[in-house]
Amino acid sequence: MGRRSIIGTSLAVTAALALSACGGGGSGSGDSNTVRVTLVNHVWTENIRAALPEFEQATGLKVDVTQLGEDQLSDQYNVKLNAGSSDIDVMMYRPLQEGRLFAKNRYLADLTERAKGSGEFDLADFQQAPVGATTYEDKLVGVPIITEQQVLYYRKDLLEKSGFSAPPATLDELKTQAAKIEADNSGVAGFVARTGKAAAVTQFSSFLYSFGGDFVDGSGKSAVNSDAAKQAYEYYGGLLRDHGPNNVSTDMSWSEAMAIFTQGQAAFYPEANSLYKNATDPAKSKVSENVGFAPFPAGPAGSKPYNIPSWGLAVNESSGNKDNAWKFIEWAAGKEQTLAQQKAGVPGARTSVWENPEGISTYPKDMADAITVSLANGVGHDRPLVERVAQAREIVGQPIVDAITGRDAAAAADTAHEAFQKFLDDEAR
């Protein structure tokens, strides 16, 4: 979805096309002692750049960093990877957005043996769901470095006013509490969420999984018209239709939905944990002191929120410097750096950083507790796992819009199923 979280966007970075990690210019000469790394503008990147002298001193290697905005990054990869260029060694990429395409096109080197053979790296320490998203045809082609999980944001003061002692543990309770709070508070919606047909897909996914569905079945066929999917579409759309903001638009992404919540106009808001500072920062939120976080409510299949890697590191298959490229990844995604990133507010993919009190010390306690549930039950994708992700999201997101606007969600799911199956058949050719 090209998620641009507040945690995930460095406000201090300018749109420079090439920046040297150490203040010098990059040689681009193919020197085996120079690792050429392409990274996105992100807090993770700023943190790792600050730590690079430690890596360079320990290894004797020089790291040349090219740092780009997301759109520029995609443009560069489209040009250089398609051309088989060898002047990128390590690349920062989005496993769920372009990972499948890159892997199918053999742009990503197989890291399986390197990762398994490094005891210090400890591949087993990585959460299963994010690693699944960086695996293609049973080969590890990337290492997850930044994760996101879905949690439920809520207003503690409104729950208390309406007599609720705890946030909803189930989707049935969510509907009940949303209705009661809305009835008790004029001008406050019981629920708000993303509504745009593409933007909503990622957050809708947790509802889909918790109803027992998925975008495709075990054989890779469309499953968006399963009974579980139809129930999920109707639930999500119906909750917004019946208890969402008045005259709710059907083109909201996270920024619009978050604004409604932080302006005090909604009681519940399911969203990525990476955005939580928008709700807790008094400079951005009128309700900062009353925001709570809860695990994603359980549906008929339990609580199954997504637990996904928003960014990962990979080695360019065309690189002639794979050994040193792996040394960089081994360090940058190692336990020490992952803990440092986590303490700086960048959620990591390693189990150890969530089990370490230091790793959760900077998070609100209820947020850390909610994330723990996501780590245990999370699903490793929040959109269809296909090559043409944007087109797929448009297709499977249409029933969300139809349900919100009061159309027949089941019929919309049947229509989407036909279009999505055709899409899958076309992509398989």
From TrEMBL:
Source domain of life: Bacteria
Q: Which PROSITE patterns match?
A: PROKAR_LIPOPROTEIN (PS51257)
Name of the molecule in the record: ABC transporter substrate-binding protein
Q: Which Gene3D superfamilies match?
A: Periplasmic binding protein-like II (3.40.190.10)
Q: Which residues form the signal peptide?
A: 1-20
| Organism, scientific name | Micromonospora rosaria
Q: Which UniProt keywords apply?
A: Signal
InterPro entries registered for this protein in UniProt: Bact_solute-bd_prot1, SBP
